Amino acid sequence: VEGATDKRLLQKALKQVKSDNDVLITNGTGANIVAVSSYLLLNNVTPMVVVDDDKDGKEYKKKIVKISNDFINKTFTIRDLDGNITADGTIEDTLPKDFVESKTKEVLKNHSLDDAITLDSTKPFCDQIIKHYSNVTSADTTTAKEDKASKLSNIMAEIKTKVAEYDQKSITQTKTPRLYALSEEILKKFGID
Questions:
Q1: How crowded is residue 72: how many other Cβ atoms within 10 Å of its Cβ?
Q2: How far apart are CA 163 and CA 131, in angstroms?
């Protein structure tokens, strides 16, 4: 998977769906997932690779599949595995809107930013958060563009970390149907029911 928070969420979900699964998850740090996949292949390991369905994730998938034909049926976006996940979405879109929204508000408030955000469950959460940040900081002409980008990156990382703290016992077909279904599909790819 792409990042540490993706790994944490998927590990919890896989354990919740089937506690005795033997699936091991490693993660890159976003863009280096391509290099990690290549390195594993050089060491005779062809991992199953799962990336977000956002622009970056789709690009990583393309690059990984180009490494070797061995990756063609082993590299997936989260939406490839569960078509009910929001198009262009990330792992955060598999969680309840209210939970992601509350963690987002908490982080925005901690950074003294307008936390009046209402997420739409039909659109990628991260895109909405980025747009909200851009809107609330657009009037600030004294902060350099690079500093705003750096702050946004830190805020997004903080939100992803808080969202990854989602309680494992709450990962159910009822409360988190998308994450649960994604986990079931991953286990099926390994022949684990």
A1: 9
A2: 19
